[in-house]
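In this section we turn from sequence analysis to structure. A common task in structural bioinformatics is to predict how a protein folds when a small molecule is present, because the ligand can shape the pocket around it. The inputs are simple: the amino acid sequence and a SMILES string for the ligand, here flavin-adenine dinucleotide. Study the lines below before reading on.
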Amino acid sequence: MDFSYTDEERMMLQMTRDFAEKTVKPLAAEVDKNHMYPRQTVAKMAELGLMGVTVPPEYEGAGMSNVCYSIAIEELSRHCAATGVIVSVNNSLACEPVKLFGNEEQKKKYLADMASGRKLGCLGLTEPNAGSDAANLATTAVLDGNEWVINGRKIFITNGNEADYCILIAQTDKSKGHRGICAFIVDLDNPGFQVGTLEDKLGIRGTSTAELVFEDCRIPRENLLGELGKGFRIALTTLDGGRIGIASQALGIARAAIEDATAYAKERVQFGKPIANLQAIQWMLADLTTEYEAARLLTHRAAYLKDQGQPYAKEAAMAKLMASEVAMKATTKGIQILGGYGYTTDYPMERYFRDAKITEIYEGTSEIMRLVIASNILK
Amino acid sequence: MSIVVFAEQRGGTLRKITYEVVSEGKRLAAAAGDSLKVLLAGSDVAGLAEELKKFGADEIAVANDAALADYTTDAYAAVLAAYIQQENPGLVLLGHSAIGKDLAPRVAARLDAGLVSDCIDVKFADGDYAFVHPIYAGKAIATYKVNSAVKMATLRPNVFPVEENAGAGSVVDFSTEIPAPRTKVLEVKQQGGDRPELTEADIICSGGRGLGNPDGFQLIEQLADILGAAVGSSRAAVDAGWRDHQFQVGQTGKVVSPNLYIACGISGAIQHLAGMGSSKCIIGINKDPEANIFNVADYGIEGDLYKVVPALIEKLKEVKG
Amino acid sequence: MKIVTCIKQTFDTEAKITIENGKVSDQGVNLIVNPYDEFAVEESIRLKEKNGGEVVVVSVGNDKTQEALRYCLAMGADRAVLIQDPALENGDNHSAAVALAKLLADMEYDLIFCGKEAVDDGAAQVPSRLAEKLDLPQANVITSFELGDGQATVTREIDGGTETLEVQLPAVFSAQKGLNEVRYPSLPGIMKAKRKELKVVSLADLGLSAEDVAPKAELVQAELPPPRKAGRVLKGEVEEVVAELVKLLQEEAKVI
Ligand SMILES: Cc1cc2nc3c(=O)[nH]c(=O)nc-3n(C[C@H](O)[C@H](O)[C@H](O)COP(=O)(O)OP(=O)(O)OC[C@H]3O[C@@H](n4cnc5c(N)ncnc54)[C@H](O)[C@@H]3O)c2cc1C
Ligand SMILES: Cc1cc2nc3c(=O)[nH]c(=O)nc-3n(C[C@H](O)[C@H](O)[C@H](O)COP(=O)(O)OP(=O)(O)OC[C@H]3O[C@@H](n4cnc5c(N)ncnc54)[C@H](O)[C@@H]3O)c2cc1C
């Protein structure tokens, strides 16, 4: 067993850490406060190749491993969880299904566009009545000649306001249940599409969480992604991989909380000595660091298994479950260690805290993660 | 044996660093029982020899040549190397200035001599020199010995006290063949007007991100005017475009050690401290009671610099008349 | 156009320094490409991108230094040479310059770039020593570089200002902050770096003996500086505080 970094993993870490420090961190507070989509940062990340980390070079990706991908998302999220998830969604939820299920033409056009960062992608799955129960979709796609006609609403779609392409999951035959579900690539530059409500939300405020409205939205027949009736499978497989991204995002947030709390504890003096000298504080930091490291190993292992072409759904669910709960705990304790200062907006700790919560919800809630893990071990 | 000091001048004026290095050369010569020889190179610089006499060198050699009008590495290295070869000294000292930094290693390589750069102390004991040089931007202090016959060192500006000494000896001419330089000086731009140069200033007033906007530096300049100080800045202020990089103090800027350093709206990041931590007296003006600058400042004022600095200017006007 | 760029691997500038047996310990320290050398690498790559040719990064170091060289390859340098030898482990600036000069003597180059100094020993000696050993002109601490015909025009920092120089080529240039904006290695760059040549050579390969590179300056000991004691924080009404400060500066610190 080898726990050391390869050359490319080390360089990825060094580069993304440096980039996050110098480019992402200075904007993070403003991105959060003003609900600002970090457009320029995204453009820079595209130039560096971060929008298509694991996509093969022939489709303009970097052709790197999932472990490298995980490292990148963690480092970006260390300073700005919103920036982290924008990248994660494009990579895991938009590029990945096209990479896995798309045909050559689709890859040449859509995958290359998204991996290069020329275009931004999103995944449209969730609907008002289809959350955890994702198969309960109401959005329909009906074939009309050489076009699919789409009608329905998607909600809570990350990148929805900025995206050029949407990987859309819709119902083509209600009678077949989840076997009647298909995936499509929708070019959102379409008169039948518009962005609806934009959610105001607790955290990751630099990302849009949008309602996507499709009204007689006509797309070419060849934009069906994968086989007819395999859309639900495609969605689930996509989310399996996405969980590595979200676990990595959670790791970044947890590390932010731990590092900031550690630095603060060494400086804050009460009762005549730094609070880091108090065992109460030390134990919190020791526990958090241990749990963070454990979650990181789980995440890297899931990424490694994916790289090896082995089953990884259970491991990805475990990684996301643990990492997101560690992020929540670390940011809660982080505020505790900073005391009243942690509760104010003078310190980024309260932002970490608000950002952490979503990692327990999207791409499958913690409860759903437990379901996935249980069904894997009980099967 | 002798100690050779290179006297730095630019545009026909001796630099302050020269007095510092000659003074230290004299002290070391006294300790080691050596003679002190000063090499002055330039064009039309004979007059400066008089000035140098105040420091008690046994001999002042003047290399006066039109080819030395501008500082070029090729020409100056030829002169200094030839002089060292003629004198065969045990120790050669230069300032750790732009010229000294350029010239010393070039000559050291020509003579295969050991060189310790940027010394803050040179000690003579048991017949040998020990050279003290801060490393890792001052986070550690290293002591070196040099094992070559000729030992060389450059001295950090503003560290070694200037001391006049009687008993100056002769002024002699020195000439050697000067090669045609392979570099040509097209233009020299001096900046900062009447203000002292950062690395030479006794007092430095610096501003940081806490100024909030580029105009804030006007306030810092007013303060500097009263004190005859140079104006420095933190990297944050440089990165924001408020100040040119050459005024940056710190790890990736200038290393300074004035008698008084006034940091206004500067948090005191480790990289900033690397540039000014050896100042004799530090004042921090900051509105954040937790600011790190207060951990190193001799005197701190906790408050808004836009209130404190104007009041300080008024008070200084009062006491300075 | 052939460009050789000399780099050194140094501690991260935020590294905490600890001393062990009179020497600075490198335990657990994050290592980086010396920040000034990054400007040198960036300038070299830009010149290559504009004029064609090759950038070779060279370094004197140990096993770990390969990481720094790979990083430069990922930025866009074409190949790397590492001089590694037990006899160089306690070397000084003289040792490094002698080894580099011997390596470069057998290479083709039009330009040599270095950083203006390394952030560890802050000596700023290698560029000038190297230029001398190769009998080349030098221009140190440059903040701009413009390539001409057989010469280059550069701006360099001098005390209290700047100087514009015309330099005959080939020559050695040392880079100062401001010369350019350093790029990050792109992901495809990182992938390509794996396949680029990184050659390790010993002193024997260069035809040098341990004696040739024996240091001229030897570290006797390193110690931590005495901590600077925090002084007093003055509190109260602005006028009173300022009056007190001025009095202290005059009477206690005696600096004005
Ligand atoms: C900021 C944000 C961004 C998002 N981005 C996207 C996106 O890009 N694309 C997309 O398609 N969706 C996205 N979503 C939707 C997200 O994936 C869903 O919100 C999530 O899957 C949960 O669905 P729900 O909100 O409908 O909750 P519900 O499914 O209604 O769940 C409510 C509660 O019931 C629990 N629960 C539900 N079913 C079970 C069960 N079987 N066993 C135990 N407990 C259960 C849940 O765990 C939860 O605690 C996003 C959501 C948010 C808030
Ligand atoms: C490799 C590297 C090299 C570096 N090199 C250098 C270097 O050479 N020099 C350098 O300076 N930095 C350097 N830095 C950057 C350094 O880490 C800090 O980021 C920088 O010094 C911060 O500058 P600052 O103190 O002006 O800004 P900040 O850290 O933002 O501090 C501003 C301060 O102003 C105070 N303030 C705000 N408003 C007011 C007011 N109205 N009145 C009073 N106080 C106020 C605040 O409380 C705060 O303490 C380097 C960093 C790296 C990574």
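Residues 231-267 of chain A form the longest helix (37 residues). As an exercise, try to locate the residues that line the flavin-adenine dinucleotide site and compare them with your own expectations.
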